[in-house]
């Protein structure tokens, strides 16, 4: 192969490798046992000649790595993730390295995990499972693991982009929940869907579902029974959920986060969980991954899973393929397949709505 492409991790499937090999690339996959590679580890992988890198969200892609990649002749970097808060896009631009991410292929998979956590929290599935396995079940009781009925309640979505909208549809259609959402962009297709579904239910003699676009995030926090967070992590969304916003939520609300950990002030969340035993959370992401803030692991009203929202076979193979196409496209002189510079910043009041 004429071009040297490095992947910092083995990735699922073979399609991504074949695509690169067929197009004159030599693919080198890092086989280090440790889960999180340091900047030094990656510098060693880049070496003296490297045309492109496929990296992971656990890695810190800043000035040091992009300048090294540029010196090695590299033109392209792709995160194998839709989120790219681990990538300093300005530094990449400065060194002439194009950046790609992997949106689209993980939309439904991620929304399905958010929906799963929502139901698991509402129906206390994990607590009940632990109870069974501990041999504590000694017969049916009227009060045993009573949770929340989602039907007819209100689901609140913060950030109604691709994933947030897919999640909203699942909860509205699957559980007949009413929708309230907050985003600087109007989610027109989502609104149309809920309207049409509401009309369908009404025509069948059922209670119709409704939607509302909130004028502030607080409105969602105040009114929703179940809230799922789907913003991009940036300066404007860091600790979006903090002590004050938690206090705004209903005492028996459910909060789900499959976006990025730092969107929630996790210390404040642990405190809130401790003081409000009926408040429940489903978390896929954490502020200091792979760690949890002290106390979180002991909270019965929290469900915690290790950042697996995009973890379906189809999606992970798709993410690897998209990442390979990103790098390949740039090496071959095309625009990068998926350029995160095109992702509009969430909650950036100055961002103009798309034409
Ligand atoms: C996973 O967290 C992703 O951003 O793709
Ligand atoms: C519960 O198992 C019921 O039959 O109501």
Give a written overview of the molecule:
By secondary structure, the chain is an alpha/beta fold. It has two domains: 3-105 and 312-342, Rossmann fold, CATH 3.40.50; 107-304, NAD(P)-binding Rossmann-like Domain (Rossmann fold, 3-Layer(aba) Sandwich). The protein is 36% helix and 14% strand. It is built from twelve helices and twelve strands. The chain has helices spanning 15-22, 39-46, 63-71, 89-94, 107-122, 125-133, 162-175, 188-203, 217-223, 243-248, 266-275, 313-331, and strands spanning 3-7, 25-29, 52-55, 76-79, 98-100, 154-158, 178-182, 211-213, 226-229, 254-257, 280-283, 302-304. The strands form two sheets. A seven-stranded parallel β-sheet has the order 8-7-6-9-10-11-12, with helices on both faces. Helix 11 (266-275) links the parallel strand 10 (254-257) and strand 11 (280-283). Helix 1 (15-22) packs parallel to helix 12 (313-331), helix 5 crosses helix 7 and helix 7 packs parallel to helix 8 (188-203). The longest helix is centred in the last third of the chain and has 19 residues, at 313-331. The radius of gyration is 22 Å and the shape is globular. The relative contact order is 0.16. The model is unreliable at 342-355 (pLDDT under 50). One glyoxylic acid (GLV) binds next to loops.
